[in-house]
Each structure stands twice: as structure tokens, then as C-alpha cells.
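Discussion board: Methods & Data

I've been asked by a reviewer to show the raw model output for two of the constructs in my manuscript, not just the figures. I'm not sure how much to include, so I'm pasting the format here to get opinions. Each protein appears as its amino acid sequence followed by a line of C-alpha cells. Is this the kind of thing reviewers expect to see in a supplement, or should I convert it first? Here is construct A:
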Amino acid sequence: MAKPKIVVKTKTASVKNEILSLLACHQPDLLEAGCDEAGRGCLAGPVFAAAVILPPSFTHPLLNDSKKLSEADRYRLRPEIEAQALAFAVASVSNTEIDEINILNASFLAMHRAISQLSIKPQYLIIDGNRFNAYPEIPHQCIVQGDGKYFSIAAASVLAKTYRDDYMQQLALQHPEYDWHSNKGYPTIKHRNMVLQHGFTPHHRRSFNVTNPQLSIF
């Protein structure tokens, strides 16, 4: 009697399958830029966004949604993305602007600023998420979880995240008690406790309130 075939699912195989799920482009006919933001849920600091145009042949075994990558891998990928991109740009919207126009509109504005700074004008935009304010004269498509589906959006997510982290590391030198070198402005328990004890800094988003006793954020 023939022995049953044993199939072993390895970690390498699962990673390979995930890599193959990233696509080069959403449509093949127009020059396409992927866009994503970082820092939308933070209590402090700007929201950053990036726009990236990659060559059609671009591929990378590591590149994925920045949230799925380690910090070391994100910083390893950044110079490779910048070297191979046809064009890329990173832009931000400050905490005071966020308070004026709300975080959703600030995220769109940051992406618009990044797009406007591209050295090559794209003909089509693919946006991570389900909403976007149209950029003048360039059609777009919103893609939910697009940073895990398309290389250009994944690349934008890596650039936006690493440039924002660099910015927050600099702010952390001014206000070490808020632990920004570690939490990057996100609402960790320590960060929220420090806000309740010491109040807001000039870098905090005043429209993001911290309440007690549960330290919920509204």
C-alpha cells in the first residue's frame, strides 16, 4: 500500500504566497502613483503621506504593508524604494492644521501635497483606504487595504511611516517624558498618562481629547 503523501506547510511558503499577492499596478495603461499616509491615529505630531511611482517591472521580496514589517525592515526598504522609484515625494500636515480641518481631511491634504511634489506627474492614482478628495485632473481609485495589495501603495506606506518616525524621534528630544521615541505619538497608556499629568505640548492635537478614568480617546 502506498504511503499517504505528507504535505508540510512551511513559513517560507506562506511568505511567498503573501509576496505574490502584491501587484505591480491597478491598471496597465496610465502612469500610476500609489499613495498612503501614516500617523492618522496619533495624539501628537503631523500626519505624513507619500506618493510613489514605481517602474512596471518593480518587485521586492520583502515589501509589504508597513504595519506588517519590523522597524529594521522598513528602514532597510526605504533607500531601495527611493533608488528604484521613478518618482517619490513625502509631505505632512501639522497638528495645528489637523485641529483646523480634522484628521480625515488632513490625511487627504498630506497626500495632495505629496502628489504635487512628484517630479513626474502621474496619470492615475491608487489610494489606500475607502475615501479620498479627488486630486485635480488626475483620476483615482480607492483601495481598501491597498498597502497589502499593490507595490506602489506599500512603498508609499513605508516612506510615510519612516519619515514620520524620524520626525517624532526629533520631537522626543524636546519632550522625553511623553515617550515619543518609542510610541511615535500614538496613544499608548504611558503617553495618555503623561498627557493627563503634564498636559498638552505645542505638538499635540488639541482636537484629540484624553479623558479619564479609562483614558479613552474621543
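Construct B, same format:
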Amino acid sequence: MTDVRIGATVMSRPWAESGGRPLAGSSAPGSGTGLVERVRALQPLIRSHALRTEQERRVTGEVVEALTGAGIHRMNVPRRHGGYQSSLRTQVDALSAVSAACGSAGFMALIQAGCAFIAALFPDEAQDEIFTGPDVRVGGTLVPGSRAAAVEGGYVVSGNSPFATGCQDADWHLLTALADTGEGPPEMLWLAIPMAELKVLDDWNVTGLAGSGSNTVVAQDVHVPAHRVLPVGPLLSGAFPSRRNGGDPFYRMPVLLLFCAWTAANALGLARAALTEFGERIHQRGITYTFYERQHEAPVTHLQFAEAEMKVSAAELLAADLIGLIESKAAEGEPYTTRERARIRAQCGYLTRSCKEAADLIGSASGASSLHREAPVQRIVRDLNALSLHSFVNPAANLELYGRVLSGLDAGTPFL
């Protein structure tokens, strides 16, 4: 296993020129007020494209443009660049609404929202290049599959960046790379690169979140100026180079904890959609080889429905708790304890597991007819399974991490 330096812990073209396409979603409202309602109004459209999204292995262009037009990409863009800087609660509600209609679209939206937040931590000169319009779409990953070599004025980077969600519809990519430090393990860096300078491999063919377009992005001797580089280590410690955003409480929220909230939105939206779908199906079908002509009349259905509902409701309470803690800490400017950070990660994993269990229960109670590709239930089950496999969300890994801290040990990771 290769060691990576993350801080002290060992472990130039505008976006509109990318492909020459015009500013997308330029009609999005200038205020974040009503964002959740605008997104909910798009749910029928998003839902109608869910099967095609999965078949094409990327979110359809119609849905991408509709979400952009609603302002979904403005949630974390600085206000001076036309963004909303939406409250975390608003972001979770909006992302949950997208996810309830299509898990893949919701996952793409949360990744791009998160990467826009990270872009706002880059040096101000880089932000001026990236945020040439408030609807810019920024993608990225935290998988260091590339190497960056220091040269005069910046770095030259080459390598693969897998799991680059939504890369085919992004304007910029935050590529993670390792750079030699001259001594000790390499340093992890985020490098902001226009998508026009990168290649996308056609290698996303999976069983869950299949329409998220999380292909591999390839850099081949791409020069990145120094002002478009963000060291990951200092960022995890709360230090970032943006002078304009450095004193803004909004951008002092720890980005990794925000990812816990954003991914929770995906799980909650999917699980709520499963409950809604089940509530409709049980009035439309019977239970084969029984006397029940309508599934909703069977006691077993009552037990299944109630248990699934309780699991999702419990997950929503956990989400509300972690969102409240993040927002209150930001408002008060208080530092987080290691225990609080570990707890938020554990809550993210646990609520995702609860949502997955609810969907699994509903899936097993939905009958063989739910196996058809056009039935949302089977897709929701697969999407939640995929989300729970994400290394940052994985319930077992996060519980172990929290358990170590509760037991008085080091967390075993700087990613808190």
C-alpha cells in the first residue's frame, strides 16, 4: 500500500470555452428562494427519464438542462459569482427531491454541488476562471489515480481519475493527484482542469447508480498553473487559500462532513421514493397463490410497510441531527471535536444502511413484477446498494471509525 502525505498526516480557460457551448441554464432565478419547490416541480420529468438515464449510463441532457435551469448548481457558488450559498438544510432537501425521482441524477447533482463548494476554496484567481457563470458544472473525485510533477509555475499531471461522476456534462474537473515532496510520502493535491483538456473513458457499466456517468477521466501531460492547485492536507485541517471566502462562515463548514449530509440526501430521497412506490403498488396488485386480491389487505404487508417506514423515519432523524450540528457549528464558529466528526461519519453510514434495509424490505415485498426494468423499486434497491458501497459512506467502516474514537483510540484516518 502506498503512503500518501495529507498535510502532516501520512496516509486558464473560462468554462464556457470548454467545448464551446453557451452558458447553460442562464434563466435560473437569481435567488435561492424557492429552489426546493422548483426542483420538486421537475420530479415528473426526472422520473420519466430515469430508465433512459440508466440505459444510457449518464443523466439525459434534458434533465441536466432542467436542473441547471432550476439553479441546482448554484447552491455552493459564491454570491459574488451569482451563486446562492444555500443553507445546508435547503441543499439536502433539494438533493433529496432529485434523488427521489432518479438516484443517478441525485448522485450527480450532489457530487457537482460538493465540487463547486471545493472550487470556492481554491485561490481567488482560480475561482475567477472557474465561476465565469453561476451555473458552471464542476466535477471531481478524491481518488488519487494520477501523478503531478512540479514544474516552473505549477504542475504537469498525468494519470487516470476513476469514478468521475457526471464528467461528460461537467465544465471543470477537480482531479486528485499525488505529488512527490522530495522526502517522505507524496502529497495529495486537487487540481482544477477544464474538461476540454481531459479525455473520458467509456468504462462506466455498473449495476447501481448506473446512470450517474461516473466514468474514468484521463489526464495526459496536462499543465496546471499553481493558482489552480489546492493541497488536500491543509484543507482537512481547515486551511485553504481563498482570501475572499476565508472569513465566510459558509465556507468554514468542513467539506468532508458536508459530503456526509449530501450523500444522506441521496439515501433519504431514494428510500422515500421506495415507500411512495410501495404505497401505490399494494393497491394495484394481489399476492399470488393466496386469497389476497389486494396486497394492502394482508397483515404481512402492514408489518412490512410499517417497519420500512420506521427505518426511513429513523434515518431522517439522524440526518436532521447531523445537519443541525454542522449548521450550528458554522453559525457559532466553534471547532469540532474528533468525536463529533467521527459521529457524523457514523451517522451518515448508519442512516444509509437504514434506508437500504427499508428498500430491501420493500423490494422483497413487491413481487416478481417489480423485477421489470421500468419498475422503480428494483432500481432503488440497486442504487442504495451502490451508495452503501461508497468508501466514504460504507456503514461498517464508519461504525468502526466511530467505535475507535469512543474507545479512546485514534480515528485511524485524517478524512474527518
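Answer (T.O., handling editor elsewhere):
This is acceptable in a supplement if you add a one-line summary per construct. For B, something like: Residues 76 and 86 are 7 Å apart (CA to CA).
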